[in-house]
Design brief:
Helix content is 64%, strand content 0%. The protein has one domain: Hypothetical protein af1432.
């Protein structure tokens, strides 16, 4: 079956796509799968990882919202995967590679969304970036310290998925664009649902470019990428659409993200700061899978590994256990 996939790639993929048999391989050699390509195997490893399962209880923008339809880190990841696959399919790129990168791109994200990332970046001596932590998760932390041993192309796409990153494959670029398209548009939905934003407050010039509703805006973005990049050795948006997307992103940061984050900023900062300080001073209480890397990385990195792995609810639970007096305690 794997050979059939190779034949399809030879027939249908763009000359600029990364073919499955062209992979630079894994950090550690292993016996190939008889049925799946390496990129398909990477996708499956990510889906069945513990860090992927934890994404369902990590904040995207709104923490513990009253409602069932707000975006979580997991639903955001699925959105990115779908958009990246659509871009890859339209440009005849390797859809399996794009999907694997998309599913793994936020595995290292902190609890409490970007507030949590900023707190750890301030506390940790070497800083903290969720893209680098996502790579560390798949390389080192998963499977009790063995890592997932993913291909070089998937690892590259994960660590370079942010706007400032420079992915080495067009599939990685597709994921980076898909990430921005996904979080801007679905965060607009959440902000309107939460009462932080009214539809008529959206920048009129951006809406004129992309459209009024989420589906129209996403379709417009994907079509623009196709028209700009088809049969080209790059993946990008047209200048008009790219500028409009950047303006919409700036608008969201100024009018939604900062306002929404203020609601959890103080509590999240206090909790994560207290937890960080506590575990740096009590490294013996770290779970064994994180303590195992102390000699290699030092206390600060091991504590960041542990804290960034937490879901929102788990972090709150650990904080309460350590710092909130219980009834009957002395």
């Amino acid at each position: 079956m794997k050979e059939k996939t190779y034949e399809k790639e030879k027939l249908f993929l763009s000359p600029y796509a990364k073919k499955s048999w062209e992979s630079a391989g894994r950090l550690r050699e292993e016996t190939p799968c008889a049925m799946r390509t390496d990129f398909q195997r990477d996708r499956d490893r990510i889906i069945y990882s513990k860090s992927f399962l934890r994404l369902k209880n990590k904040t995207q923008v709104f923490f513990a919202p009253d409602g069932d339809h707000y975006i979580t880190r997991l639903t955001h990841t699925l959105d990115v995967s779908q958009i990246a696959r659509s871009i890859a399919r339209s440009l005849s790129l390797n859809e399996d590679l794009a999907e694997a990168i998309a599913l793994g791109h936020d595995l290292g994200h902190t609890p409490f969304g970007h507030v949590g990332e900023r707190v750890l970046a301030k506390l940790a001596p070497g800083g903290f970036r969720h893209s680098e932590q996502s790579l560390r998760v798949v390389d080192v932390l998963e499977k009790d310290g063995k890592g997932l041993n993913l291909t070089c192309e998937v690892r590259d796409g994960i660590v370079n998925h942010t706007k400032s990153g420079k992915p080495s494959t067009l599939e990685g670029v597709a994921v980076s664009l898909a990430d921005r398209i996904a979080y801007i548009n679905h965060d607009i939905e959440d902000a309107i649902r939460a009462g932080f934003l009214r539809d008529e407050e959206l920048p009129a010039d951006c809406i004129a470019v992309f459209g009024r509703d989420t589906s129209e805006r996403i379709n417009t973005a994907i079509l623009d990428i196709f028209e700009e990049s088809n049969f080209k050795p790059y993946v990008r948006m047209s200048e008009e659409k790219a500028q409009a997307l950047d303006k919409l992103r700036t608008f969201m940061f100024e009018n939604v993200y900062e306002r929404a984050n203020k609601l959890i900023q103080e509590s999240a900062e206090r909790m994560l700061t207290e937890l960080y300080t506590y575990f740096v001073g009590h490294v013996g209480e770290l779970p064994a899978s994180y303590a195992a890397h102390l000699d290699e990385t030092g206390e600060a990195r091991a504590v960041c590994d542990y804290l960034s792995s937490m879901t929102d609810k788990y972090a709150i639970g650990v904080f309460k256990r350590l710092f909130v007096p219980r009834e009957g305690s002395v």
